[in-house]
Structures are given as C-alpha cells and as structure tokens.
Amino acid sequence: MSTDGTLLLQPKARELRLEGFSLTVIEGPDTGASLRAQASEVSVGTAQGSDLVLADPTVSRHHFSITATPEGFLLRDHGSSNGTWVGSTRVLSGYIDDGARVKAGRTVLRVDLLDEDICEALSPEDRFGPLLGASDAMRRIFAALPRIAQSDSTVLLEGETGTGKGVLAAAIHEASARSARPFVVLDCTAIAPTLIESELFGHVKGSFTGAAADRAGAFEQANGGTIFIDEIGELPLDMQPKLLRALEERTVKRVGGNQRIKIDARVIAATNRDLRTEVNRGSFRADLFYRLNVMRIHIPALRERTGDVERLARHFYGELVPDRTISNELLEAFRRQAWPGNVRELRAAVERAVLLDDPALMALGSEGGGGADADGGWGFEFDARIPFRVAKQKAADRWEERYMRELMSRAKGNLSEASRIARMDRSHLRTLLRKYNLRGGDEGTEPGTP
Asked: How far apart (Å, rounded) are the C-alpha atoms in residues 355 and 363?
C-alpha cells in the first residue's frame, strides 16, 4: 500500500518446473543405494560433498553429475579416471533418457523419471544490478542473489570466459552490507607465480628483492569489504594451502613477516574451469574446493540463454548511442550468430557495429580533435588500393586505441576505475590494453609506463 492508499502490485513470482528424477545403484559395492533429486543438479562420487556418495574405489571423487534441464537430463563426466559410460559409449557430456544405465567404475546406476517435479524459483525481475537477462537461466540466478548478497558466505562463480563473472561479483558486493567498504580484485592470470603470495597477503620491507617498503596485500586492502579472486583455478598448487589457512583462520601473514593479521573480508572466487575436474586431476586441492564451494553459482553461456541476445544487444547499443535505436536488421544478424565469447563478445560486436556504421563516431578517432584534417576527420586516410573491409578495420583499430588511451588517462591508469567509466568487463579491458601496449593497474599505474 502506498502513502496515498493506492494498492501497489508486486511482480508475481514464478517457478521453473523441471522433471524430477532418481538414481539407484543396481550393480557394484553400493547396490541398493538411491537418491531422489531435490535440486536440478545431482553429483555422484566418493567425495563426502557429493549428493550420492559411493564407496566403490574405482569411482572418482567427483565422478559425474546429472542436471535436469528444460531439454532433458544432462550427464557430465568430471574428468573421472575410469570414465562415465552409457551402454558401450563413453560420455563426456550428453543428454540421457529415462531408464538409462550409467556405469562409473564397477558401479551401475539407473536413472528413473519421477512423477514429481523439481521446482526452482524465478525472479520476476530481468536484472540484478548491471546484469541483464530475461531467460529462465538468468532469472533462476537472480532469484537467489538477494539472499546470497546479504549473507557473508563464500561464493564460487563458475562459467565460461566472457559470461560476466566479474560483473556478478561486483553486483553481489554492491547489494551487500559491505558495499561501502572496498571491493578488491585479484586476477590470478595477471600475476607472476612468484609474486602471487605477496599480492594476496602483502610483504614486509626487505623480504625479497624490490620490497622497498611494507605493503598490504589484497586481503588487508579488502578488510571490511570483499575480495574477488578471479580465475582461482590458475592458483599455483603450492599457494593453495596458504589460501586455505587464510580462509579458515581469517588471518594472513605477510611475506617475510612473523605476525598473523586478522582480516574481515568476504571472499568471492571465480573460475572458467570445472574445479571438480581439477580436483580429480590433482591440480586443485579438494579441501580448498570444499571451502570455496559454500555457495556455487554457474553462470550460463550465452547459447544457453534463449532470447537474451536481443535484450543485451539493445542495452549495449543504448549505452553507446543513447539517441538512436538499434535496427531490426542488426538484431536479426546478432540472433543468427553463435557467441563462443559470450556476453563479452556480443558487447564487442555491438561496439564495432556502432563504430563502423556511424561516421560521426569514426571521427572521434581523428588526430585533429574537433577540426578537419588530412583524413577529413574520419580517422583514416582514404586509399582506393585498400579494400573496403580492411579500411573499416583500420579505422576501428585506430578509434579503439585512442579511446583506450583517453580512458586510461582519465582513470589515471587505474584498471578498476577505467572498467567502471567504460562499463566494460575488466578482462576485456585488459585484453585491449595489451593489444595496444598500454598499461593499467589497481594502484594507479600511468598508462604506457614500464
């Protein structure tokens, strides 16, 4: 009810109903064990964190999982030692039918369709912070995010490159009680293995060559806020027990120091790998995986988000050209394309479309600023010997480089600030900076400096 007595109608909550299923062991050491799926995904293995825990020593810790989807039951093997088999076919990933017999090691399980459905809440909203998505796949995530954001639980974000894991991590922080405190990003792919301990935990003066002064690490910098550890699957194996201890004890010790420092930072980690597979391979510690896997969110690839391509394309186009509307022809072209690079690739495609279809935007790349110059303000010199497509790409590259230089100048070299100004994913921004030999860091490194 509003202040003037008007009844305010709230968006009606929806549910996604998926076919329920059960698993029953019909052969092997665990014969008779069974499980009725309570959620859309069920995991099977010898690890205690599995939904169906088996004692068969020929079964891997995280052997396989079955997920109920609108298209059917999706079976995924997680890099098991002996493989996952349906009949005589070894399956890495594929859909299976009711009654299928799945073999793992010496164990055979039967999959049975149930009369009862698995119900999962769908958010009535089509966004959470800057994240957009009207598809059921995204609304399922949006429905859970408010509760997750308000908790202090560790969150593990999984998804392919370009799906928006960094954007989601920042959105969770902004919706949390820690939003007024720092949001610190540490990208494991951007740090040399010899420096990652210092970046995480800090160091004391003289602890190694180049340590000219005491320095707080990412955990200390994030005190009271959130630390986002991106691509944690790349963390060196010898660093993983140190991170585990920091997470369990909520203390860190600087490199070269003796004192353990108390920290209060929420941890959000992200990876484009399946950490269950990495645990099976021995490249990721099982105990660290369990410590991170408190709240796991799988961000779907764009190909799994039916209908979201048009929604996202309209949004990105509106950000770049607020006074214009994207054409139906361009939307149709986007709908027909595959997007292996996911949302990041789609945004880059929208940027290119805007740039190459609008001469006024091309002119932003001209060396002469506001006036006409030798290239007529187009950002390239006309040469009839150069094919049209090549000329367009040269203009695009020139504009893009100038945009990056100006962006990093205004952000004073700070990568996080530049990401906020451009509303661009940090990983994509970093890729563009490398393309044009520019530099940026979270400490305010000037662009172009060594």
From this structure: 9
Task: Return the pLDDT at 357.
Answer: 62
250 vs 49: CA distance, rounded Å: 23
Write down the residue that tokens 């995530």 correspond to: 141
Find the mean pLDDT for residues 319-333.
Answer: 87
Picking from 336, 321, 342, 248, the residue whose alpha carbon sits closest to that of residue 287 is 248
Give the pair of three-digit tokens for residue 54.
């088996």
What percentage of the chain has pLDDT greater than the value 90? 65
Residue whose structure tokens are 């479309």 = 353
Q: What is the pLDDT of residues 79-136, one digit of tens each?
A: 999 999 999 999 999 999 999 999 999 999 999 999 999 999 999 999 999 999 999 9
367 has a pLDDT exceeding 80: no
Cα-flanking dihedrals φ and ψ of residue 202, to 5°?
A: 90, 180
d(C-alpha 60, C-alpha 50), whole Å? 11
Long-range CB contact pairs, 47-54, < 8 A, 24+? 47/279, 47/286, 49/290, 49/293, 52/23, 54/25, 54/28, 54/29, 54/30, 54/104, 54/107
Q: What is the 3-state secondary structure (H, E, C) of the chain?
A: CCCCCCCCCCCCCEEEEEEEEEEEEEECCCCCCEEECCCCEEEEECCCCCCEECCCCCCCCCCEEEEEECCEEEEEECCCCCCEEECCEECCEEEECCCCEEEECCEEEEEEEEEEEEEEEECCCCEECCEECCCHHHHHHHHHHHHHHHCCCCEEEECCCCCCHHHHHHHHHHCCCCCCCCEEEEECCCCCCCCHHHHHHEECCCCCCCCCCCEECHHHHCCCCEEEEECHHHCCHHHHHHHHHHHHHCEEECECCCCEEECCCEEEEEECCCHHHHHHHCCCCHHHHHHHCCEEEECCCHHHCCCHHHHHHHHHHHHHCCCCCCCHHHHHHHHHCCCCCHHHHHHHHHHHHHHHHCHHHHHHHCCCCCCCCCCCCCCCCCCCCCCHHHHHHHHHHHHHHHHHHHHHHHCCCEHHHHHHHHCCCHHHHHHHHHHCCCCCECCCCCCCCC
In the predicted structure, residue 299 carries a pLDDT above the cut 60: yes
Tell me if 299 sits within 8 A of 168, measured CB to CB. Answer: yes
**Distance of CA 125 to CAs 13, 136, 300, 374, 397, Å?**
9, 11, 17, 51, 37
